[in-house]
Amino acid sequence: MVSASDTRPTRRHIADAAGIAEAGRILIDGGLVAIPTETVYGLACDATNARAVAELYAAKGRPSFNPLIAHVPDLDAARRIGRFDRAALLLAERFWPGPLTLVVPAIEGLVSDLARAGLPSVAIRVPAHPVAHAVLTAAGRPIAAPSANRSGHVSPTSAAHVLADLDGRIDLVLDGGPTRVGIESTILDCSGPEVTLLRPGGMARERIEAALGRPLARRAAPVAERPGDPDAPIAPGMLASHYAPSVPVRLDVDEVRPGEALLTFARARPAGSEKAPRVLDLSPGGDLVEAAAQLFAHLRMLDSADVRGIAVVPLPRHGLGEGIRDRLARAAAPR
């Protein structure tokens, strides 16, 4: 197994039957494998193996108090590691498999304490991707799979993105092509009396509220980046500075400053955009699904250009726009 201190190149394998079988063997043996899901590429390890989880944290450089999502192939497997009340069960039956993570009370002794960051709850998702499902089935156990990038970096939507961040730090990348949704899952806390939105993402809040027949509660976010803080994360993706490029990001701009690249939407061209060294449009046609799928790849391309910063035009607040704006706000947070 490649550890975070190794320098051997990471193997890349097409996500065929042989590659999936190899990924399953590596996970059972405690190794690290990047796999495609419908949201982004996930860095997978055996969620019941604390040493494997520690290797994953080390490979990502991830804060150990930031819990991981346990991925399972179906609802039956999910109910073996967490306790589902009526609301959680309704949401699981309605939206799984899909880009929705549910935080529920954990059944102790299964998903490791380290993967749960010592919490009494567990975050669970059933991914809607045939390769991810096949790998989960081959491994035969819950799999932790945060985004397959260095912690705080832009999330990966292709195998090439994974290798750019983690080559030599993990065992294998299963190449299943570009991801479909392009932003991480929506996370709901179902461990208390109310269903609470913890992180907007690939499942629009409006669809969830329609299924529940009531509005979601919302926890104050983003949280402080301190392990002892009472507001420390109870789910992934809740740190204030997250998904961050190496250059400053400005949001909701009406003009582009000298030296800034422009991330735009629906062909918007604020003042000064004609002098921007690079311009990328999340969706020239104004399609939020396309924008979500392009978000991290576009951020990576702009971050790799010789620019002083990234200016971002105002984006819609409805549907997937809420999740896109959340990721961009974290990218722009002070760090």
TrEMBL record:
Q: What class of enzyme is it?
A: transferase
Signal sequence interval, chain numbering: none
* Domain YrdC-like, chain residue ranges per copy: 17-203
Record-linked SUPFAM superfamilies: YrdC/RibB (SSF55821)
Query: What is its subcellular localisation?
Result: Cytoplasm
* Keyword Transferase in annotation: yes
Do you know which InterPro entries this protein is assigned to? DHBP_synth_RibB-like_a/b_dom, Sua5-like_dom, Sua5/YwlC_C, Sua5_C, T(6)A37_SUA5, TC-AMP_synthase_SUA5
Q: Which PROSITE patterns match?
A: YRDC (PS51163)
> Which of UniProt's keywords are assigned here?
ATP-binding, Cytoplasm, Nucleotide-binding, Nucleotidyltransferase, Transferase, tRNA processing
What EC number(s) does the entry state? Answer: 2.7.7.87
Q: What is its main location?
A: cytoplasm
For molecular function, the Gene Ontology terms on record are: L-threonylcarbamoyladenylate synthase
Q: Which reaction does it catalyse?
A: L-threonine + hydrogencarbonate + ATP = L-threonylcarbamoyladenylate + diphosphate + H2O
Source species, domain of life = Bacteria
Write out the similarity annotation.
Answer: Belongs to the SUA5 family.
Protein role:
Required for the formation of a threonylcarbamoyl group on adenosine at position 37 (t(6)A37) in tRNAs that read codons beginning with adenine.
What name does UniProt use for this protein? Threonylcarbamoyl-AMP synthase
